[in-house]
Specification:
The chain is α+β, with helices and mostly antiparallel strands. It has one domain. The protein is globular.
Length: 202
């Protein structure tokens, strides 16, 4: 793939569960934010990865296991190191919401299925505000609630383009986007770069 070619990307629509199908230059995709969905229920090793535009993340990574409807791990990041640390934090805690910028800034563990906390509602409410504020601190203000937007990006029943652990999904046609986006299986990933095939990202 040459540098003047374009790749598919998920376009975020602020305040909406929908997304739009973007085609962006390869060089822009390489420099911009990425989204990944990591399968976490059956140890398949499936990971879907794609460029994302309009999320407004300036640095670091945010990740969550509240990811409709399969509730895999979904992570958006500006760099591979923070994305990987975010995924590992959720793996180690059994799920939740996490914000990483060189280190874990905030983490709301949701150890019951990755969806519920073993804590009082007052504790969860307090910690949710803290993790949300940390996420907003890494963003440009485009999104009122980055975690809410993040939770709908893997939901492959709401148009237009979504990402699952199997790759990008054309929701209108109800099928995977052929030969575009990224779908890999991994065992001993040392870096998020290892999740990418030779094209289109490298």
């Amino acid at each position: 793939m040459s540098a003047d070619e374009v790749v598919d990307a998920i376009g975020v629509v602020p305040g909406q569960a929908t997304s739009v199908w973007k085609r962006i230059p390869l060089e822009e995709a390489k420099k911009g934010s990425k989204i990944a969905v990591v399968e976490r229920h059956h140890a398949t090793g499936n990971v879907g990865v794609a460029p994302i535009v309009g999320f407004g993340l300036l640095r670091g990574a945010i990740a969550s296991t509240v990811a409709h409807d399969s509730h895999n791990i979904v992570v958006v990041g500006t760099n591979d190191t923070d994305m990987l640390e975010a995924v590992q934090a959720l793996r180690n805690s059994g799920g939740g919401l996490v914000v990483v910028d060189g280190q874990v800034l905030r983490h709301l563990p949701l150890s019951i299925g990755g969806l519920m906390a073993n804590a009082t509602y007052e504790e969860v409410a307090r910690d949710y505000v803290r993790v949300l504020d940390a996420a907003k601190g890494l963003c440009d203000g485009t999104l009122e609630n980055p975690f809410m937007t993040l939770s709908f990006l893997p939901l492959a029943v709401i148009p237009e383009l979504k990402l699952t652990d199997l790759g990008l999904v054309d929701v209108v046609k109800g099928q995977l986007v052929a030969n575009r986006g990224v779908h890999v299986q991994y065992e001993d990933v040392q870096d998020v770069d290892d999740l990418y095939p030779p094209t289109p990202f490298t």
